[in-house]
Fold:
Amino acid sequence: MRVKTDIIFGDCAEVLCHLPENVVDLIFTSPSYADQRKKTYGGIHPDKYVDWFLPISKELLRILKPTGTFILNIKERVINGERSTYVMELILAMRKQGWFWTEEFIWHKKNSYPGKWPNRFRDSWERLIQFNKSKKFNMYQEKVMIPVGGWAKTRLKNLSDVDKLRDKSKVGSGFGKNVSNWLNRDKVYPTNVLHLATECNNKNHSATFPKELPEWFIKLFTRPNDTVIDPFMGSGTTNLASRRMGRNSIGIEILYDYYKGVRDQIEADELVLFEPEKKYETTGLNNECYRVRRE
Ligand SMILES: C[S@@+](CC[C@H](N)C(=O)[O-])C[C@H]1O[C@@H](n2cnc3c(N)ncnc32)[C@H](O)[C@@H]1O
Structure:
């Protein structure tokens, strides 16, 4: 089956307007954080972040299929000793825009080196906020099951009577557990915390996420031949993972060097037929858009 990878040079706020509606199965992205890493690719002032992002999320809502999912990797920074509130404000604003805030995953950066500041410790996790168009969306939970682990040997050896019944949640969450359900199983579902090391080897981009991060969500929310988009492509981690996993993908990047870096990698993949095309016209930017396709 043919896998398409469309790598586009431009501002996603403009490029997205040229994509058709309801075509994408998964949006997986990590936009520039507020005011961070200004030297490398700019930053948005925290007070302006929501206003900057809402026109983009409006287009993302339009291009996402009704069964699709949007995963937003973001973390509010500390300004003047206080955590900024722009991520919370963004979630509220996106709900008003029509998004359904389904879930929040945590990426625990398990290789963070120690550190201490006068009033806080090393920041060692980031949010992955899940938005959908409605409560019903595609999710392939079996694809991310994990080995049951050593706890099962001891915990399941001598089951009490309570373990054999559905034990109601003590905090009233509505979630119950029946421990005996896990007898004789070698795989279980994971939690919403992902323990992954940060990516330190990418010399071309200062903010790459590890390839396992998009891979996990691509497995969970898409099937082969579905379409994934990363509107803030960077070094193309999402697109390269999508490609390896047999998913079509679109990547948009505003900085030419990053865009070219990904394009070169895809060209180097010898199965690629490279075909420059003025496919997506963008306004106000004197750039060329390219379509890179594997035949
Ligand atoms: C946090 S980085 C993404 C890194 C990426 N996840 C990776 O693994 O390499 C955000 C990227 O978005 C790009 N960017 C910022 N504003 C953009 C915009 N309006 N349209 C497209 N790309 C943009 C930046 O140049 C930067 O490369």
Observations:
- The radius of gyration is 21 Å.
- Residues 278-295 have pLDDT under 50 and may be disordered.
- Residues 148-188 form one domain.
- The chain has two domains: 4-145+191-294, 148-188.
